[in-house]
C-alpha cells in the first residue's frame, strides 16, 4: 500500500470512530431518529472533506486531535445535505453509498429530521471544546461553516441546481452553481483544518485558492464519472444527470475536454501550494486523488 | 395601550427590522430561495422567543443591541422548524400565520432548502459579532442553541411527536415530548438572552426553571386553543390535533383541567422569579401573556 493510501485509510478509520462517538447512541430516545442519523453518516463515504481538513491542518501545524472535530463538523454538514438532496422533493434517489437512502430505509419525515439534526450537531461539535488557539478564532470557525452551509453557500448551490434543470446553462453559470453547491464546503474543510493551527494571511490565501481549484476539479470528475462509471462502482445511481437533463461539464464540454479541465485544475491547485513546501505534501496528493479517482 | 403591550410591540418591531437585515435580500442569487426565506420569517409571528430573550436580558443587565441578535438566531431556528414541520412528509399543513405555507406558496424543494438555510443563518448570526462578555461565553451560546435545536432537543421532539400519532401516550410521555419539541428552544431563548449580560449560577438556575414552566404552559395553552379557537383567529388550521388523532393535554385531561394546569405552571414560573426582583418584571408579564393569550 502506498504511503498516501495508508494515510487516507488511517484518517478514514479515525473519522469513523470520531463520528460514531459524536452521534447519539441508537438506544437513547428518540431511538429511531438516532438510528437513522447513524445510518446516514457511518460506514461509508470517501471522507474527502475530512481528508482535506487533516491535510490543511498539517500546513498549519495543527494537532490532529483538534482537527478531527472540525472535520467531523464539516462531514456532518455534507452528510445532512446528501440526506435532504436524496429526498423525493429534490433528486428522488434510492441509492447512496451502495445502500438505500435514508427516506427509503426509514421514511421521509425521519429523513427530514435526520438532516436537520445533523446540521445542529455539526455546530454543537464546533462549539463544544477548544479547537483553535483562542475562542475568538473558534467563533470565526463557526461562522465559516455556517456561511459555507447557508443560502450563499451549499444550500444556495442546491437551489441554483434545482432551478437549472432543463435549462441551457453556460460554463460560467455552471461554475457559479458548483462554487456554491460543493465548492463552499470544500473550501470550509480546508480553512477549518488550518484554523485549528496557525497560518499567515498569505498561507490562508494560498489554501483558499487551492480549495477553489479542488472543489471545481471534484465536480468536473464527478460529472465524468456519472457519465461513464457503472452504478455498482459509484455506489449511487449512475447516469442520473443525463436522465434528469441536468447541465454538467460533460454535457457542455464533452468527456475529453472535461478530463483535460480536471487536469488543468489539478495543476492550478498544485501551483497554489508552491510556497508552502513539505507540509503541503498531503494537499498535493489529495489534488491527485480527487482528479484520478474512479468512484 | 398597556405598558406591556407597548413593550411587546416595540420588541416585535425591532425584531422585524433585525431579521429583515440579517436575511439575504431577495435580489441576490439565488433569488427564489432568498425570497422564500424572507416569506417564511418576516411579517408575522408573535416572536415569543425573542420576547423571552429580551426579558431575560433585562435580568442580566444585557444590552438589547446584543440581545436582538441572539433573539434573531433563536427565531430563525423556530421559523425553520415551522417550514419543515408544515411539509407534506410531516404535518402537511397549508396555512401558517394566515398565509399559505412555504411549500404551498413556493414548492417542496424550496421549503426544504429554506429550512436548511435558515438554520445555517442562525449559527452565522451567533458567531458574527460580539454578543457576550467574552468569546468563550459566546461559543457556549452556540452550543446552547445547537443542542436545543438538535436530536436531543427540538428535532428530537418532532421525532417523538411523529412516533406518537395514534398512540395512547400518558401525561409523562406527553410532557417528555413537549420538553423537547417546544421546551428546549424556549429554554434556549431565556438562557441566550441572559448570556448576553451577566448572571450568577443561581439566577441561571432560576431562569432555567422559569423557562421549563413557561415552555410547558405554552404547549398546554396551544392545545386548548387548537381545540377551541376558530382557524381565522389562530392563523393556522385549527382542530388538527384531534383530526390527526394526536395526543394533547386536552385529549388527556379535558379542557377544564388543561386550563387549570396552565394556571399552575404560571404560578410555578412566577415563583421561580421570586428572588430576582424588579428586573424580572417582563418575564412575569410574559408568563401571564403565554397563559392568557387567545391566538
Record keyword descriptors for this entry.
295 residues; 1% strand; mainly alpha; Farnesyl Diphosphate Synthase; homodimer; 72% helix; 15 helices; globular; two-stranded antiparallel sheet
CATH H-tier superfamily of chain A: Farnesyl Diphosphate Synthase
Strand arrangement across the biggest beta sheet of chain A: 1-2
CATH architecture of chain A: Orthogonal Bundle
The CATH topology name of chain A reads Farnesyl Diphosphate Synthase
Assembly annotation: homodimer
Number of helices of chain A: 15
What is the makeup of the main sheet of chain A? Answer: 2 strands, antiparallel
Mean pLDDT of chain A, to the nearest integer, reads 93
Rounded radius of gyration of chain A (Å)? 18 Å
Task: Give structural notes.
The structure is a homodimer of 295-residue chains. In chain A, 72% of the residues lie in helices and 1% in strands. Chain A has a single domain (3-292), classed as Farnesyl Diphosphate Synthase. In chain A, strand 1 (95-96) and strand 2 form a beta hairpin. The first copy, chain A, is mainly alpha-helical. Chain A is built from 15 helices and two strands. The first copy, chain A, is globular. The interface between A and B is large, with 56 and 56 residues.
Amino acid at each position: 500500500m502506498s504511503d498516501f493510501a495508508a494515510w487516507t485509510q488511517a484518517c478514514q478509520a479515525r473519522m469513523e470512530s470520531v463520528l460514531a462517538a459524536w452521534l447519539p447512541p441508537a438506544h437513547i430516545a428518540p431511538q429511531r431518529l438516532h438510528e437513522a442519523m447513524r445510518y446516514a453518516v457511518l460506514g461509508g463515504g470517501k471522507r474527502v472533506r475530512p481528508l482535506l481538513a487533516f491535510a490543511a491542518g498539517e500546513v498549519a501545524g495543527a494537532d490532529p486531535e483538534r482537527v478531527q472535530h472540525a472535520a467531523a463538523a464539516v462531514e456532518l454538514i455534507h452528510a445532512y445535505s446528501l440526506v435532504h438532496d436524496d429526498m423525493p422533493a429534490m433528486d428522488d434517489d434510492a441509492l447512496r453509498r451502495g445502500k438505500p437512502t435514508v427516506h427509503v430505509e426509514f421514511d421521509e419525515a425521519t429523513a427530514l429530521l435526520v438532516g436537520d439534526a445533523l446540521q445542529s450537531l455539526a455546530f454543537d461539535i464546533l462549539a463544544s471544546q477548544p479547537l483553535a488557539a483562542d475562542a475568538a478564532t473558534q467563533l470565526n470557525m463557526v461562522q465559516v461553516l455556517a456561511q459555507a452551509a447557508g443560502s450563499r453557500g451549499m444550500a444556495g448551490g442546491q437551489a441554483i441546481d434545482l432551478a437549472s434543470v432543463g435549462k441551457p446553462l453556460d460554463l460560467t453559470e455552471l461554475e457559479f452553481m458548483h462554487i456554491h453547491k460543493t465548492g463552499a464546503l470544500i473550501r470550509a474543510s480546508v480553512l477549518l483544518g488550518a484554523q485549528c493551527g496557525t497560518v499567515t494571511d498569505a498561507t490562508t490565501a494560498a489554501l483558499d485558492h487551492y480549495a477553489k481549484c479542488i472543489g471545481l476539479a471534484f465536480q468536473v470528475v464527478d460529472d465524468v464519472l456519472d457519465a461513464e462509471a457503472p452504478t455498482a462502482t459509484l455506489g449511487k445511481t449512475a447516469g442520473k444527470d443525463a436522465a434528469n437533463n441536468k447541465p454538467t461539464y460533460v454535457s457542455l464540454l464533452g468527456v475529453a475536454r472535461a478530463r483535460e479541465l480536471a487536469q488543468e485544475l489539478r495543476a492550478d491547485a498544485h501551483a497554489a501550494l508552491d510556497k508552502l513546501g513539505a507540509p503541503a505534501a498531503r494537499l498535493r496528493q489529495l489534488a491527485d486523488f480527487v482528479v484520478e479517482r474512479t468512484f
